[in-house]
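Hey, resending since the last one bounced:
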Amino acid sequence: MTTRAHQSGFYALLSTLALATLSAPAFAQPAPAATDDDKIEKVVVTAQKRKQNAQDVPGTVNALSAKNIKSLGINSSDRIADFVPGVTISLPSGRGNQPILAVRGVGNNDFNTNNAGPNGIYNDEVYMSAPSAQTFQAFDLERIEVLKGPQGTLYGRNTSGGAINFISNKPADAYGFGATASYSSYNTYELQGFVNVPTDDYSAARISAIWDKSDGFMRNLLTGDRVSGTDSVAARALWQVTPVENLSVLFNVHGAKVDTLPTEYHKVGTLSFNGVSFDPCSQADINASLCTDLFFDPTNPDLYKGSYNRRQHLDVENEGFSVAANYDLGGMTLTSITALEHNDKLHPEDSDAGPLNLLQIDFGVTSNTFTQEFRLAGESEKLNWVAGLYYLGETLKQDQSIDIFHDLDLAFGPGAGECVPADLINFTQFCSQTGTAHSKQKTTAYAAFGQADFEVLPDTRLTLGGRYTNESKDFTLNGTIIGQSGGFEVFTAPQPLWGGGFNESIDKSAFSWKVALDHHFTDKIMAYASFSTGFKSGGFNGGFLDINTPTAAGQVAPVRSENNKAYEIGFKSDLLGDTLRLNASAFYYDYKDLQVHVLTTPPGGLTADVLDNAQKSTIKGIDVEAIAKPIDNLTVRLSAEWLQAKLDKYVSSRGPAAQNYSGNTLPNAPQFSLTGIGEYTVPLGGGDSIDFVGSASYRSKVFFDPANDPLIVQDGYWVLDAHAAYVLDDGKWEFAVFGHNLGDEKYLNMAFDLASFGLLQQIVAPPRTFGIEASLRY
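The structure tokens again:
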């Protein structure tokens, strides 16, 4: 529920911005001269593979500076969605697992570990291919860039929706040190820091690390312990070398580890027992927490409590190494980026979120990725260009097991879980079973790309870009099944599934391109129009398939590649002596064969989520960003997006019956999203100050699946954060207090409907938290 205080805090930000905006009638009135401190900060980005003022990029770019990252408390990659409208990031399995990321409604609600989404995640220009490696701790960063719209000409692969760049602070030629320690609610500790050391006249090194640990905000009623916490550590070492004149080489070694109890679901039952059998509950009874799951476990009305019987730890390891070399050829720069990334994860999921074993899954994955990029770029007053080659090779192995109805004897009496051979093969009745699935996916991708922008008329530039991509995938899958026979936890010998397994492959080529035209009416006002295309290769259902071989064959068959035609117009402006920035864009996407993850229940089988293609989808919307400095020491930011993301034509082809979802809203695509941020500094003299930062964000109603299942939906909600810091000695010392979700909103990040087991899985966002923080930097 939204409190009045919550509302008034945000409306105060809106009012301040509105007054600043209305004070600028017609751009024509002259503004008094502003000092550099009064002006809005210029943001330098590398969205087009060169350093450039974000106001000169003909496209929508949202950037967060190092100061923003710190004051807003962005300590993990998923938190950027709280401050960038049009971006949603859910962690259905908690930190260290793959995110479900959508940009302007373009995403993939697939929670399996073998299908990278249509939005690229880049760490220091290296594409994070493995989905399990796409969420990580954010520390010692120079900035974060969010690029909205297809990035099909300059960026890696699978960027038909957008790209997010995380840029680390690079080694400098002066000694430096920094450390930040914080303590907050639920016994949460965080410590991060860096050391910068010039090693000689030609090189410098920077080492940074972060560690966080939390008991968690949910309570396990079986043990009394807190759960859904964290225990993570990450480190990065950078060494910048200039071995010869005009050559710069950056070595990057990094690693991270997560070792904690997995994030727990809040379970909601969907069944009622009439004394003989189960009946589906009404939606009203489900929402009122009056129903149970298939094992009679009732719903706990408290979102932050549950009875969880699994105690195994989530174990995730990420290691990587990259070498980025830049050689100045005189008028041109040759760049080479070579990278190796390794990801290893075991996630023991308490899927039923209950005291008995109704459903438990182990997700295991190992991924090894090698990427190589070569670029040659030139820059002049009239012409900027870049051309390059890209290669990616990835081997990804999944080892997964699923344990269903294991405790039937405990719930219904001895013998309830007995299986006979016919049950195992045809699944004619429920019985206690364990299945395993082993898959291997090998991906090879090649690309040649280029982009240039040049002045065609005074103050008018034309951008042309293209990328040719060839991508092939080979996918093999096999599995076994055992069933209970002869007593509780007495099982049959393993039997092979699917006639020995499946072997599938994809080989697809595509050409992506971009045309953009921008015109500077003045040095401070620019308008642009662009047309671009995006491509995402096909993929395979990496989850659990039906036991029945013909049904499974239909589920494992590759999905088609998706293609996006994107149109965008917009303007960017700095007004009133650079004290007011107004940017806006309108966009329209025409999608063919959009990949979606959809629920299906074969006859006599279990509910499963499988990959599918939606035949036609359209997405349209408006992005607005305004930044104002209406008075000394005050900066007010407002960014908003209106979005309409629809499945124009989608008749599912993976289920036993053709379900028609045409006209539905895409998952994770709120119609309205906005963020307001206010920053105010009170100078105290002598380099001391008190800095206040407050933020409020709103997300309207969100569906979590293409069917727009009314049982798994999140209504609109507000979130309010605040940070107040006492800064001493020109920023060398800082002592702060902060709060997140001050209105104590109760909302979901994601939800899944497991109809066969009589339950909903809900991923709950953290409640209100408070903390203190101390920083030292010199």
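The longest strand covers residues 433-457.

Sorry for the duplicate.
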